[in-house]
Amino acid sequence: MRRFLLLSLGLLLLAACGGPEPQVRSGVEVIANAPQAPESGQLVNETPTRWIVELSGQSVSDGVSLQSVEAQHAVFRQAAETAGIKIRYAYTDLFNGFSVELPKGSSPNKLYTLPGVVAIYPVHILALPPTQRVEPDLATAITQTGVDIAQNDLGLTGKGVKVGIIDSGIDLQHPAFAGRIIEGYDFVGDDYNAADPAHSTPVPDPNPDDCGGHGTHVAGIVGGKDSQITGVAPGVKFGAYKVFGCEGSTSDDVILAALERAERDDMDIVNMSLGSPYGWSALVKGINKLVKKGVVVVASAGNEGASGLFTTGAPAAATDVISVASFDNITVQLRTFTISPDNRTVGYFLASGSIPAPTSGSSPVVVASPLNGCNVNGANPFAPGTFSGKAVLIQRGICTFREKALNAEAAGAVAVLIYNNRPGYLQGTIGGPISVPVVMLSDSDGATIAARSNVTLTWSNVEARFPLATGNLISSFSSWGLSQDLEFKPDLGAPGGFIRSAFPLEQGGYAVLSGTSMSSPHVAGAAALLLEGNPAFAHGQRPALVRTMLQNTAYPKPFSLAPSSGFAESSFREGSGMIDVLGAVQTRITVTPSKISFAEVNGAYTQTLTLKNRSNVPTIYKLVHVPGISATGSVYAPSFVTGFANVTFSANQITVPAQGETTVSVSITPNPGLASKSLYGGYILFQPVGAGVGLNVPYVGLQGGYKSIRVLEPTPFGFPWLADASFNQLSGGTFTLQGEDKPYLLFHFEHGAQIYQVVILNGQTGKPIHPKFNKADLAWFTDRNSTRTGIFTLAWDGTYISKYKETEVYNTDIPIPAEFKPVPNGIYRLQIEVLKPTGNKNNPADWETWTSPAFTIARP
């Protein structure tokens, strides 16, 4: 897609702050509403300048010789150099193509004119999460998944298994990995930051030493082992593939290069605790080839839980990747202060970016008014001196932590206490220097302080262990499924909230991070234990068997937003639930498919499940349906309701014979009271009658199927628009195409589009300007907008696609542009056309369209 911007307009914030509540039909009960993420409303230009280019030939992993691939590369390199295009990376093993950077102001369409190009993909930026320094124990996390028993009773350590960590590197001097880092490479250098143009040029070297900490922490969870920590699989060996600098972000073209290196180094498992939400990526093609070669690939589902549904993105959204959600740890060790009058001990997290909190001294505490501490009409709500000499208590919500802290600081506060507005402890970042300490509290501690009068806070140097009210519940940050193409994601979950693991020695040696970044390596370590315990797995079947066994033996947890409601968590957020490593290692019976996804189907669905017994003992199972919470209303801020499906079985009890198999049919009928576009799901449990390991198959559906999805959402402002360069809505007009005097299209994508195209119409007849050569823009697999205030824009330069290449991408009959020519002066309309996810491009009902008002092109 060319000249394609993601914008967030201040004028759209009005829509984010209100609007009607979703209409829930009879028989469907609202259980909870999703907490909403603050939206800045600032204009953000996310036009990509770097692209991954795919060439027409196959890669080495497809059986083509390296010499043949390099010959094609030589032709492309020469043409790219002539066109002034900078090559960043070349790919030969899992993917045939390049990562390139365009000259400033160049259209990506020029890439299509180069020899062999069949597709281009924007390079996504992936940021590292902030760190939090507290002291929960990895030992408590491994008890949540049965890893401790698998290690201690079964003696499993992951010995003989090689795990590639694609991350910020690993601290090569850390005792937790002594003698076990056998491969590695630094693809970027310490100063690299993909989001900073001044530092976005990679400077690779052979030393993958970690200066950021994230990769060391991840590796420690997979298999670190020293006097302080024991990871999930402490006997594995590591490949360290550094794709982040000391801070900042990386991009998926760098990650693709690391995947190729991991494949050449013969890794058994690859962990990627990173991702780009909402959309598709060229990574998927390389990953799927890696999996077909027998490599188990595990990736974090993402930390976009506050951004609504369909936020699981690449690489976790790839079909063959094990996508991992996060559950909170069960305990946490925190720094403390006490409050009067009873010297109650309160634990806190220091906000990332904050100066250290004192370890002694006292100050009075005052409750902020307004409680959220956010700007009112753009101004600080607190007068100067309001909080002089006092600590101020502020509640989470509405605006950023930084805005709250800056407002309190400007009003004279000596400390800022921000407490959660939902159950559990709070972690967060203030994003930059502030002269007073900022600490994060649980909802219950904040409410206690707010309810007391004349409270005095006394800082302490004592640390204490606290139970986590959210322990064993899905983490608030964990991303929701499904993927943009309605794939059932995430697949399963593991502990990822408040996890202590290794950290670079020069930064203290150990630290706590929270995120699906921490749950993914837990599963990668579990996969290593499974591979060690099942050496007879056929190499090519290992990824599918590992995922099946982990999904089958996982178990659903209570709904995190209302854990006392008695309802299970949504399957499209936790997958099959919390993994049970002991169960996965011990089970000799599997169920396939290991998940049931029919989101593209409108109405009832029947799936046949096959149970295969690899033991010498028959097992009897009773079948039970456990529904999960449904989601309805806005994609960005859904409501969570009952609306459970009706599920029946061809047999309510089955026997799986020794060394044999049996089948059972499951019929799922959606609740007719559930609103269109609602996601619903649940779990089919196989409960053993007598001895045996319980099994689980999650399912998910979409009320109305894929046809219910609306990609071109108008929003309260009635998009799409025809507009000028200042984004003023127009009902027509004349454009010279000189400078910024161009017609703009503004539109909002509520969901990703399988195909997006803009057709040029004769403004007087309303017909396309040519039967075939009539498109101003064309793209496939386009992301949804990240917020409900986000829009895409197209600035049309008056050209049309005048030639297509013979090759067609993905074998889907999508034509590939080869050249562009200007249309003559005249009257035109532009028609946006989008194909719904999983839709049939030959079925007009699967397309959405919008036609602009007529306008005139009048070049001088």
Walkthrough of the structure:
Pfam families: fn3_5 (PF06280), PA (PF02225), Peptidase_S8 (PF00082). Residues 1-18 form the signal peptide. A seven-stranded parallel beta sheet has the order 9-10-8-12-13-14-22, sandwiched between helices. A seven-stranded mixed barrel has the order 15-16-20-19-18-17-21. Strands 38, 40, 41, 45, 46 and 47 form a six-stranded mixed beta sheet that branches. It is built from 14 helices and 47 strands. The relative contact order is 0.12. The chain has 860 residues and is α+β, with helices and mostly antiparallel strands. It folds into five domains: 4-47 and 709-857, no CATH class; 50-122, Alpha-Beta Plaits (2-Layer Sandwich); 133-328 and 471-558 and 565-586, Rossmann fold; 331-467, Glucose Oxidase, domain 1, CATH 3.50.30.30; 588-706, Subtilisin-like superfamily (Immunoglobulin-like). Residues 1-26, 40-46, 131-136 and 807-812 have low confidence and may be disordered. α6 packs parallel to α11, α7 runs parallel beside α8 (283-292) and α11 (516-533) packs across α12 (542-553).
